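Thread: quick sanity check before group meeting

JM: Hey all, I'm pulling together slides for Thursday and realized we never actually wrote out the predicted structure for the chain we discussed last week. Dropping the sequence here so it's in one place. If anyone has concerns about the input, flag it before I start.
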Amino acid sequence: MFEKSLLSGKRILVSGGGSGLGAAMARRFLELGAELIICGRRLELLEATAARMRSDASGKVSPIRCDIRDGAAVDAMMEAVWRKAPLDVLVNNAAATFIAQTEHLSFRAADAILAPTLHGTMYCTLAAGKRWIGAKHKGVVLSILSTSTITGRAFTVPSAMAKSAILAMTRSLAVEWGPKGIRTVAIAPGAFPTPGASGQLRPEGRDEGWAQRNPLGRPGEHRELADLASFLISDGAAYINGEMVVVDGGSHLRSSGAEDLLQWTDAQWQAQRAARAKS
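JM (edit): ok, ran it. Output follows.
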């Protein structure tokens, strides 16, 4: 679909790049010629993922441990990254969520979602942006959001709030930073199943027919998201700024994706809270 040199010469940092959609996008960037940095909290996972990527695509991948919930840690990571060469692209992928009845959320549980999803994304964006602006270096920020930014979504309210705030950031910085050569764009994926997300969002007891009710009758494939991300951060998308692209097969036009949970019993919710407490 793309020339193999589409992202050649670009240094790209992917937060949450050790697994799931972050790893899928990072792998595709590597195949298209980029130099990668993947960050996350679990260094062993990052190193294992980097080793597999190097073996498969024979490119340059650097894992770096960083808890993006900590602004000082983010700044130190960016200093380490810039020490070798400027970054060209930041992909804000790291996030957290789980289903819960909102009235039962503790402040700590809400913060567990908001800290990486909203604050971590903002910290990474500010740390990259100030360095790009200071050096007069062009850059791209791609943030991975969700269709809850359009529909809202019951039972994942902190996540919907955080993603909507990041969309506001994307649109605001497009105007503020666009004149400085920095583009901000976003993707709202629908259902692209990963083990981590499925465990948190689709536990046992949820409706099994959700994929078939997508207008296209299936979930998304990781390569489809990775290809869209690759285009948006490439020079070919140089005139796209401040926009969020939805890739969900049209699912958000039919429902928000949470309606089945309205039928859950108190016993089902109690079991879900107990399972989450154990994990």
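AS: nice. Residues 107-135 form the longest helix (29 residues). The mean pLDDT is 92.
JM: adding both to the slides.
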